[in-house]
Design a protein that fits this description.
Helix content of chain A: over 70%
Largest sheet of chain B: none
Order of helices and strands of chain A: HHHHHHHHHHHH
Number of strands of chain A: 0
Shape of chain A: elongated
Number of helices of chain A: 12
Structural class of chain B: mainly alpha
Strand content of chain A: under 5%
Oligomer: heterodimer
Order of helices and strands of chain B: HHHHHH
Distance between the termini of chain B: 102 Å
Helix content of chain B: 55-70%
Structural class of chain A: mainly alpha
């Protein structure tokens, strides 16, 4: 009886080890192998938060890669739907994961599901309004799909932009974008006008630095 | 009678000859197209070869794909793999070679039947040409944002 329990325990431990280790091996692959694997079959989230983050990273890496974007329609569809399944699985277990909501938004955009894109972007912003790196990638995604966002999702994107203007690295990127993208200027001007005077001065400084290269 | 027979044979031979020529003409492009692999394309274009040599190989590659007997979906997948192989290390190339690679990528795209794929490939070609192509994801080093 004791022996059977030990064997059963070892088997369970081995299975857990394989499940946990798989995402780490997956993320170490080159982009083509990783993407083709995600196209071929859904990826399973591990049990730990770290394993969960690794598989979400794998999906983001594949969906945002040049190879992921130039795949033909059937493969691209499989990639986004498998990543959407993964993100849904993670948010079902951990609804406070702002990163998982972002991955869901990214996959929804690839799937052309703009209602879900808006909803997931908003949830991610609500859960992590001050995470600069996450605000940056959310803004990138929102910007690429601006015409498809609901008014509430656009408002969430405005809050991300305000947060980025108030940050150090985000400010430089926004200043550069102000110079580069004329369509962006009016929008960011309206957002900055609502910020404290000190942030407004920092923004003008960033735009000036970007303008002078 | 004998003469009539010979004339008939000659007529049949001419008809057959004509038909064979026609059949041969139809088959020739498939049988005479040179087999060009993805490795040939990368070797000719992404390793500093001359622009004309690259163009010739890429055009031959596209011509080969069209007569290869593959389905449209299979060709589209090969196109994606070929473009990826071409652009993968393009960031480290000098501008003149990047321009050659970008042009090659645009030619490879013509073999695809997927309009979205073609558009995505053209975007990639533009980033290769202007030196802003990057394969790495901007969030690969991201920390978990979840408080829970």
């Amino acid at each position: 009886m004791l022996l059977a329990t030990s064997v059963w325990g070892c088997a369970l431990s081995g299975a857990a080890l394989v499940l946990e280790a798989r995402p780490f091996f997956a993320t170490a692959e080159d982009i083509e192998t990783l993407t083709d694997r995600l196209v071929a079959q859904p990826i399973v989230a591990g049990w730990s938060l770290d394993a969960e983050r690794q598989v979400l990273n794998a999906c983001v890496r594949a969906m945002k890669s040049a190879y992921g974007r130039i795949l033909p329609r059937p493969e691209r569809g499989n990639l986004t739907s498998h990543c959407l399944e993964l993100a849904e699985q993670v948010v079902a277990n951990n609804p406070s994961s702002a990163y998982a909501w972002y991955v869901e938004a990214l996959a929804a955009a690839g799937d052309g599901n703009f209602t879900l894109l808006s909803d997931a972007l908003m949830r991610s912003e609500q859960l992590a309004p001050n995470e600069e790196w996450l605000g940056t990638v959310r803004d990138e995604l929102a910007e690429a799909n601006l015409d498809h966002l609901t008014p509430d999702a656009r408002a969430a994107n405005d809050r991300d932009l305000a947060m980025l203007v108030s940050s150090m690295t985000g400010l430089a990127a926004i200043g550069a974008r102000y110079i580069r993208d004329p369509d962006f200027r009016e929008r960011i001007k309206e957002i900055v006008e609502q910020l404290p005077a000190a942030d407004q001065r920092r923004f003008i400084g960033a735009v000036s630095r970007a303008a002078h290269g | 009678m004998k003469c009539q027979f010979l004339v008939s044979i000659l007529a049949i031979a001419m008809i057959l000859g004509g038909d064979l020529t026609a059949v041969q003409a139809a088959v020739t492009p498939a049988t005479q197209v040179q087999v060009v692999t993805q490795a040939d394309v990368v070797s000719a274009c992404a390793k500093g070869g001359n622009a004309q040599g690259c163009q010739d190989i890429v055009k031959a590659f596209v011509a080969y794909l069209k007569v290869s007997g593959m389905t449209a979906d299979q060709i589209n997948k090969v196109v994606a793999e070929a473009v990826q192989a071409l652009v993968k290390n393009s960031a480290s190339l000098p501008p003149d070679v990047r321009a050659v690679v970008a042009e090659a990528v645009n030619v490879v795209a013509t073999a695809s039947s997927d309009t979205q794929q073609i558009a995505a490939i053209r975007e990639v070609a533009t980033t290769v040409a202007n030196g802003s192509f990057s394969e790495s994801s901007s969030v690969s080093s991201g920390k978990p944002a979840s408080p829970g």
